[in-house]
Structure formats: C-alpha cells, structure tokens
C-alpha cells in the first residue's frame, strides 16, 4: 500500500518541528535532544506495530547509511568552520587533540581485548567493532555544551571533533589494512594514502576558495556543498581519506588570513570570503540539524525493543562504559586537568558510532555481539553527560589532589597576606611611636 504524499510531508515537517522543540528543551534541561529523537523513533515504531504496520519489516540500513554519510560530511564541515587557529587557542587545541588521539587508541585497544574475551571473537573482528565504540560524538556534544564556560566549551568541541575525525580515519585505515593484498606493506600504504590525501586536500581547498569567491550569483552555497559531497564520495570510491578534504577546506576558509599569505593575498577578497563564510555557516548548521533529526529518528525506528530488556546486555554496556571513563579520567587527570569537571563525563557515543557500526563488512560480523550494547552505551553515556552538565555549577573546583593543592595554595597565600599585614602594621606603629616621641621632645 502506497503512502499518501501529503501525510508524508506532514510527518517529515512535524519531525523537524519536534526536533526544534527538543533542542529548546535540551538547552533548559541539559537532556540531549538525541535521546528524545531516538525515543521518538521507538514510539513511532510501537505506534505502527499497534496499527498492524510493523516497521521492523523495513530494511532501514540504506536510509541510515545515506543519512549517515551526508550527516558525517556536514558535521565535520560544521565543526571545522568553527575551529579558529591562533596562538591563544593553541593550548586548548593541543590538549584536546592529545586527549582525543590517545584516548581513542587506548580505549580501542581495551575494547578489543574485552570483545575478544566476552564474545570469543578474532582480533581483526574485535578491533573493527571496538573503534566505533571508542569515538566521542561531536553531533551530541556540540549542541549540549552551549551553556558551559568558554574554555570548557571550546575544549569539548575540539576534542569531540578530533575524536570523530581520527576515529573515522582509523576505522577505514584498519579496514584498508585488513583488506590489503598479502605481502603489501600496510604501514607504507597508509602513509602514502594520508600523504596523497593531504596534497589533494590542500590543492582543492585553495582552488575552491579562489573559484567560489569569483562566483557572483546568489545560489552558490548549495553548489559548494554539492562539490564537497561529490569530492568526498569520489575519494571514498578511490579509497583515500577524503574526509581530510572536508576538514582542511573548512579550516582554510575559516582561517583564510592565516593560509592566504604573501603573493596569495592579491588573489582573494577578504570581504567576499567573510560574506560567503557567514552564509555558509548558517547553511551547514541548518542542514546538519535536519540530517541529525532524521538519522536518530530512523535509528530509533530500527531498534528491536527486546534488546532493551536483556539484563546481560545492560551489564556488558555498563562494563564497557566503566572502562571508558577510567581511561578518560587518567588522560584528563594528567593532560587536561584544568578541564576535569564536568568535561570528564562529556563523552557520549552517537552518530559516528552508529554509522560506522552499520558500515562493518559482513566478513567481520560477530554473531554473539548484541546491538543492544550499542544502544545502551549511547543512552547511558548521554545520560551521564546530562547529569554532569546539570550539576556543573557544583563542580567548578578541581577534584582530588588538585582540589587539595588548590586549597593548600590558597591557605599559603592567606598566611603570606597575614604576615605582610603584620609586618606593615608593625612598621606603621613604630613610625607613629617615633613621631609621638619627637612631638613630645619639641613640646618640652
């Protein structure tokens, strides 16, 4: 039976409106809108089942894959357009990059061992499953941290963005390595791939920036997005890390004064680039919002409710999350201690994790791995983040030894101030006493 197109339009537009209301609610309650969107998808499925139109019979993978790919490009583009490169931001950039890189590597390694142990899986299969679970979702983090202080907010945006990009690149590099012909040097192949992609990314980014500032028509922004999407798709078909093209283009156009130096300054118009950039940010922001809306609703519709009532699945998800936060604490404690709370608990799984999970080739499938673990990790990690953000006002001080040290330093400063006051008071008293003696002598 066909679907009435008017009803379909009403449903799609209604979902966008509801998603907007979820965003408003999320800003006031710190409950991630993603959880509400997934819940909406589950509710839609249950409603369809009630009226004898079972949604579970539909193959959601092609829709999720398409939304995920387009959403991935838009999210990386949106994030890169917000990355400002400057000396002042360098401390936050290197700390967030270091935390994202090493946390991804160590967490992936730990999850690989755990998946091998719990599900009796081969190393290659376990690693392919572990990498998506180790990635922090910028799609959830970025809209959730708007109410944090500027430094904490910037750190989390950088960290989640780096985690997304590094995680995606690692996932496809590992797949490329596992699928490489026997006898081929995997490390050399990956390095050549990265080198080639960087060269292509730099050349194309400069060319696109130069060409699009010359276009005078008012309909060039979606043309630019179409070109970037096509470049990404062509790059994936050629097995190169085309996400670097999107990332570098966003960085270049947002920091054009840093990249267009010397003789290249003559070939660009700062006014035109800034004007294009402002509109481009709005377009990417709005497009990412719509894509995220439909992706998480469709994901919610694809969920089997039976996975949510499995106690073993819940316990496994909790164990994975426990290991995740222990590793994260160690990196925050020794690398980014000034961003300990509530940033420590802002590490939700989300769109990238789901998208990469659905991209795992059939030959790496682990039959004993229940997708309910993935769902629980998304819901619980988002819930933990929500609680952390709701109590952020009570967590401004540093924890543990750092907090003790802070109090100790404060106590020392008070003691020094007291000593200074005592010394200065004694000096003043002596001067007053001497002056009184002099006055008495004059009177005599």
**H/E series:** HHHHHHHHHHHHHHHH
**CATH fold field value of the largest domain:** Na+/H+ antiporter like fold
CATH top level class name of the largest domain: Mainly Alpha
Low-confidence stretches: 393-424
In angstroms, what separates the terminal alpha carbons? 119 Å
CATH architecture of the largest domain: Up-down Bundle
- Please give the largest β-sheet: none
Describe the structure.
Helix content is 74%, strand content 0%. By secondary structure, the protein is mainly α. The chain has two domains: 12-396, Na+/H+ antiporter like fold; 401-444. The protein has helices at residues 5-29, 33-50, 61-80, 90-119, 123-133, 138-144, 150-178, 186-214, 221-237, 243-254, 256-259, 270-302, 311-334, 351-357, 371-390, 400-443. Mean pLDDT is 79; it is low at 393-424. The protein has 16 helices and no strands. The longest helix is centred in the C-terminal third of the chain and has 44 residues, at 400-443. 36% of the residues are buried.
Topology:
Blueprint (H helix, E strand, L loop, with lengths): L4 H25 L3 H18 L10 H20 L9 H30 L3 H11 L4 H7 L5 H29 L7 H29 L6 H17 L5 H12 L1 H4 L10 H33 L8 H24 L16 H7 L13 H20 L9 H44 L1
Helix pairs in contact: 1-12, 2-12, 3-10, 3-12, 3-14, 4-5, 4-7, 4-13, 5-7, 5-14, 8-10, 13-15
């Amino acid at each position: 039976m066909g679907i009435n197109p008017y009803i379909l339009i009403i449903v799609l537009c209604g979902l966008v409106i509801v998603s907007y209301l979820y965003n408003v609610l999320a800003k006031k309650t710190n409950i991630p809108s993603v959880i509400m969107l997934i819940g909406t998808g589950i509710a839609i499925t249950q409603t369809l089942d009630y009226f004898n139109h079972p949604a579970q019979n539909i193959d959601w993978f092609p829709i999720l894959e398409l939304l995920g790919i387009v959403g991935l490009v838009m999210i990386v583009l949106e994030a890169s357009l917000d990355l400002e490169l400057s000396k002042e931001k360098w401390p936050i950039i290197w700390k967030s990059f270091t935390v994202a890189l090493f946390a991804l590597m160590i967490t992936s390694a730990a999850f690989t061992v755990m998946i091998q142990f719990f599900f009796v899986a081969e190393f290659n299969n376990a690693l392919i499953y572990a990498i998506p679970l180790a990635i922090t979702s910028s799609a959830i983090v970025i809209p959730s941290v708007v109410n944090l202080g500027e430094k904490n907010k910037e750190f989390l945006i950088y960290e989640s963005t780096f985690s997304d990009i590094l995680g995606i690149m690692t996932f496809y590099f590992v797949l490329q390595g596992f699928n490489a012909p026997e006898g081929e040097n995997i490390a050399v192949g990956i390095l050549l791939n990265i080198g080639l992609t960087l060269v292509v990314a730099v050349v194309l980014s400069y060319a696109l920036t130069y060409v699009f500032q010359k276009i005078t028509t008012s309909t060039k922004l979606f043309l630019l997005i179409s070109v970037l999407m096509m470049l990404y798709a062509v790059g994936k078909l050629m097995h190169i890390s085309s996400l670097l093209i999107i990332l570098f283009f966003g960085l270049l156009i947002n920091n054009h004064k840093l990249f267009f130096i010397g003789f290249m300054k003559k070939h660009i118009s700062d006014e035109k680039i800034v004007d294009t950039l402002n509109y481009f940010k709005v377009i990417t922001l709005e497009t990412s919002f719509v894509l995220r809306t439909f992706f998480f609703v469709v994901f919610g519709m694809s969920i089997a409710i039976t996975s949510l009532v499995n106690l073993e699945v819940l316990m496994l998800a909790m164990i994975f999350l426990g290991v995740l936060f222990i590793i994260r604490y160690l990196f925050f404690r020794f690398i980014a201690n000034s961003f300990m709370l509530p940033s420590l608990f802002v590490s939700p799984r989300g769109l990238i994790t789901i998208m990469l999970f659905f991209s795992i080739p059939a030959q790496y499938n682990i039959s004993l791995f229940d997708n309910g673990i993935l769902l629980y990790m998304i819901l619980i990690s988002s819930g933990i983040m929500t609680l952390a953000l709701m109590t952020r006002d009570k967590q401004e001080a540093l924890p543990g030894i750092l907090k003790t040290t802070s109090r100790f330093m404060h106590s020392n400063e008070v003691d020094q101030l007291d000593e200074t006051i005592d010394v200065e008071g004694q000096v003043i008293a002596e001067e007053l006493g001497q002056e009184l003696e002099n006055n008495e002598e004059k009177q005599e």
